[in-house]
Amino acid sequence: MRPVNRISRARRRAALGLSLAALAAGATTGAGPAAARPRTAPAPAADCSAAYRIEQKLATGTTWRMCWHYEKEAGLVLEHVSYQPPGESQPIKVLATAKLAQIHVPYDDGRNEYSDLTQAGFGQGLMDLAPAECPGGTIKTVKVPEAWDPQHQQIKGLCTTTRSRGHAYRMQTDPGSRVYQAQGKDLLVYAVNKVGWYEYITEWRFQDDGTINMNIGATGSLSPFDYDAGVGRGWPIGKGAKAYATSHSHNVFWRLNFDLDGSSKGRVEQYDSVVSPPTSGQQGPTDRTTLTQVTKELAGDAKNSRWWRIVSAAGKNKDDHPRSYEIVPGATTKYLGRPYTQHDVYFTEYDKCEQFASDNLRNCGAGQGKSVDTWVNGQALTHPVVWVNVGFHHIARDEDQQPMPVHWQGFSIAPRDVTAMNPLTPPALANQNGQVDGGS
Fold it and tell me: Of 123, 272, 329, 391, whose CA is between 20 and 30 Å from 198?
């Protein structure tokens, strides 16, 4: 919800011409040995200077590397993201760039609608983090362009740390036999940006098995000025039938520009599975999965047993299978009020001008729309860019005050055939690739 101190649209527009700011930061430190390097292979060439580089070797042996910079509207932008699990002599390139592409916030009563990245100063609202907010990690200093407080542009606002996530795997073949198990480790990169009464936690979580999780957590406070919605468009959070906090949506977009194996020339594949009733002689229903090559720009909708992957055009794993990353949607509530929020994922051909899913700020030329839905026009996909939309309908509750607990929304991309086996396979099982013990 929004307070009275939200800056005017005119002032927001006047600020759009400023240049990007660079992060003043060093390499990540955390629970794992960040500076460790394989002794049998030379260190890979850096894609950026030390001030803009994150490199973290996790306790399980996986190393993540990336660069970063900071933009006035989008906030944190990650670049040149690579993944090097145990057993791989060189980093595997995954993403050229990754960033937030919009936070669209329409209110149920129709009186207010906001684009928090492009119209409300998301990037300018970077918050200082206390050491307790970055346990075991390092807080980086970020120079914020046109920060709300001109005397406070150097913000200790970016945390890099590591965290345990529980079991990475567990396997016991027979009762009493050896238990194979490992506890997974993640690299976390996150920041907090204040927009009105809300504080958004932008979290990027890099798992040691190659999975990348992208999440936005909304917390902060409910606005004290939006308590007149009434039944059906709000929820009473005061004593009795009082203080109906206005319901609203958070429609968050991410923009992913893949660079699998160092090439932008990936392809998009869609898979759908259909269950058919059992026929004579079958014990149960059958399930058949079919592939559709997505050769042209697409506005896609998630359905039961449907998924997409981005396939490398340049590299294969040791089993001679093309490397790919699968898009794993998170829980979502689709908002149907605007054309650009009516689909879950968009695949568009790369265009440097297309940076925000709605209210795109750059002048892309006459006739080109300002939202991602207008860019899906049948163009062939040779350099696909992925836009993922995850919605949350926020109907307030008594527990939202005070302060408001974090509510999360997001998605993941998971490696599919990036390595020939589980990248964390213990040495005793390294020969079990393919059919094991005669199959079944």
Answer: 329
Instruction: For residue 275, tell me if it sits in a domain.
Output: no
Please indicate, yes or no, if residue 107 is contained in any of the structural domains. yes
Is 161:182 a contact under the CB 8 Å cutoff? no
Mean pLDDT, residues 378-400: 96
The answer to whether residues 316 and 322 touch, using CB atoms and an 8 Å cutoff, is: yes
Confidence of residue 8 (pLDDT cuts 50, 70, 90): very low
**Cβ contact 402:408 at 8 Å:** no
Answer yes or no: is 162 within a domain: yes
Q: With respect to residue 64, please indicate whether it lies within any of the assigned structural domains.
A: yes
Cα separation, 412 vs 389, whole angstroms: 12
Average the pLDDT over 43-64 and give the result: 88
pLDDT digits (tens, 9 = 90+) for 137-194: 999 999 998 888 888 899 999 999 999 999 999 999 899 999 999 999 999 999 999 9
One-letter amino acid of 376: V
Three-state SS for the chain is CCCCCCCCHHHHHHCCCCCCECEECCCCCCCCCCCCCCCCCCCCCCCCCHHHEEEEECCCCCEEEEEEEEECCCEEEEEEEEEECCCCCCCEEEEEEEEEEEEEEEECCCCCEEECCCCCCCHHHECCCCHHHCCCCEEEEEECCCCCCCCCCEEEEEEEEEEEEEEEEEECCCCCCCCEEEEEEEEEEEEEEEECCEEEEEEEEEECCCCEEEEEEEEECCCCCCCECCECCEEECCCCCCCEEECEEEEEEEEEEECHHHCCCCEEEEEEEEEECCCCCCCCCEEEEEEEEECECEEECCCCCEEEEEEEEEEECCCCCEEEEEEECCCCCCCCCCHHHCCCEEEEECCCCCCCCCCCCCCCCCCCCCCHHHHCCCCECCCEEEEEEEEEEECCCHHHCCCEEEEEEEEEEEEECCCCCCCCCCHHHCCCCCCCCCCC
| CATH number of the domain enclosing 358 | 2.70.98.20
DSSP bridge pairs for 174: none
Smallest CA-to-CA distance from 192 within 223, 215, 165, 222 is with: 215
Domain that holds residue 83: 9-221+248-265+311-363+382-394+403-428
Domain count, the chain: 1
When the pLDDT of each residue in the chain is averaged and rounded to a whole number, the result is: 88
Q: Is 142 exposed, middle or buried (0-12, 13-18, 19+ CB in 10 A)?
A: buried
| pLDDT (0 to 100) of residue 20 | 31
